[in-house]
Amino acid sequence: MPNEFRGTDRYIATEELMAAVNAAVVLSRPLLIKGEPGTGKTLLANEIARSLDKPFFEWHIKSTTKAQQGLYEYDAVSRLRDSQLGDPRVKDIRNYILKGNLWEAFDCDMQPVLLIDEIDKADIEFPNDLLRELDRMEFSVYETHETVRARHRPIIVITSNNEKELPDAFLRRCFFHYIRFPDTATMTQIVDVHFPDLKRELLHEALTTFFKIRETPGLKKKPTTSELLDWIKLLVSEDISPEALRSDDAKKLIPPLYGALLKNEQDVHLFEQLVFLHRRNAR
Amino acid sequence: MLVKFFFLLRKAGVPVSITELLTLLEALKAGLGDLSAERFYYLARTCLVKDEKYYDRYDRAFAAHFKGIEDLFAQLQRQLPADWLEKLMVREFSDAEKAEIETMGGWDKLMETLKKRLEEQKERHQGGNKWIGTAGTSPYGAYGFNPEGVRIGQDGGRNRSAVKVWDKREFANLDDKVELGTRNIKIALRRLRRFARRGVPDELALADTIDATARSGGWLDIKMQAERKNVIKILLLLDIGGSMDDHVTTCEELFSAARSEFKHLEYYYFHNFVYEALWKDNRRRFNEHVGTTEIIRTYGPDYKLILVGDATMSPYEITHPGGSVEHWNPEAGSVWLERLMKQYPKFGWINPQPQSRWRQTASIDTTRELLEGRMYPLTLAGLDDLIDALT
Q: If exposure means fewest CB atoms within 10 Å of the residue's CB, which of A30, A59, A86, B46 is most exposed?
């Protein structure tokens, strides 16, 4: 299959993720991606577009986003103003219809990849308003009475952070995949891709520390892949030695540059306490 | 075979529909199943399961249904006739690639090694997955050919472990059995919305502007209006502790749905029945009270009153002064409830106890009488009735 996604040089995809993406690509159904924050949900669409060499469109959803905005907007105010100024453009209503991201994607010459990011941020009815558009890949423009049909069914990737439940009718039309938090082996691959000439030893120590922190019970926000990558970037730029990461013999209680991993003061505090207890018990 | 699996999934409590089954069949027809059990497992999961909380149920159903069948996948692969493979190779390879193959020892050698690999596989059942690899560094994987879905790949594939994925059941703790999700509650509560325009006119009133402009002979006359807001006001009183502990999850859902849906939502807690004082924070319930009279004074009759409680207690707690289990109440609970009902003509009581059990509890009957029958079960139908009573 030429149209097959297998991850890219900077994005490691697991076997299950590849299966899900390829199913969505072949059957051109939307793919709904869920998972912990920082596991590369948003990045995925971009990487699919890059690896399959397709144009990429993104539509970021906010709490105020309406489904209609993804299709088109009719700029009535400009038209009114133009009519006052006697602009000839005013005769044609099409001059005032602004295409949305979905329309742009439908209009594309070749099959594009469209990312609908964080769909759960929108109003609870938002997914329902997109049912026909995602199913038949067409919609009609009320103002001009034309029907816009996708020239090539786009590969649609939808991400959700689970803030709101999505309606069943919507889910039925999507493929679904939950990105699990990567295990140590996958994580090593991911770090390898981002820092190809990282010293083995430092990588090993960094990953051990990272997974140890993740296992700390009661953390408000567990550090994720993207935070690990940030942290390693810092470690490299500060030239921290692998020995400094070994918390047992280091004088410091918590790992250097922890700010990249632990994002609120309660977590830092909790972690300090735990390490302190651990050291006291070890003595 | 899949129809059985489909019903097994439904029995296991995974909400799958016919559309999804058809999608899966379509995907298999498109050659996505790839003749490997693992691939099929992922593909079917992507098509059929739409929430990670069902992953565990899916894994169990999959294991139960496909036990032993996975060997079939391996057999299918072994039966590939050699010439068929060869033909496909010729079709798939460009001339440059063929030249490259020649430098590696030529066709025959390549085919021989390939055959050897297939031989090797005969002896190792569970290792079948190993052969469905990705385009990698080995001679076969590198050319990444794909005869109708069978990919003969690199050695030491991505499937590092011999344990079958579905037997790992990694999603065990995400499963939940909540039937009435917040979404449904929110949808039900939506019917209570009352939109009105109040405040600073800072929005262009398009229809008015067009109208006014037309009236002034085409001279632009812009009209503004205030933003549309939900003006419904809700006073929510929740029973907490004791017999309500069984209903804590459903009540939490109701509460969180109500909070995100209404801007003017005031809530207070009570224990078993309403008396002279209510509180906002359960941790400080004994020293931070708000008098019920004060609540009645603060919130006007335009508020709609919703009480949530199981009304399951000793009848004395309702009808007699001093009946409360926690403190000495100078006036009976029924008196306080009547005062509340008088202040808020739009009221209703939601009872999380199943309606079938209402008759068995005397205190529920008493409360219902006091409420003039406006008690509703905590189901979607019950919420609908409540909303009818409130509007």
A: A86
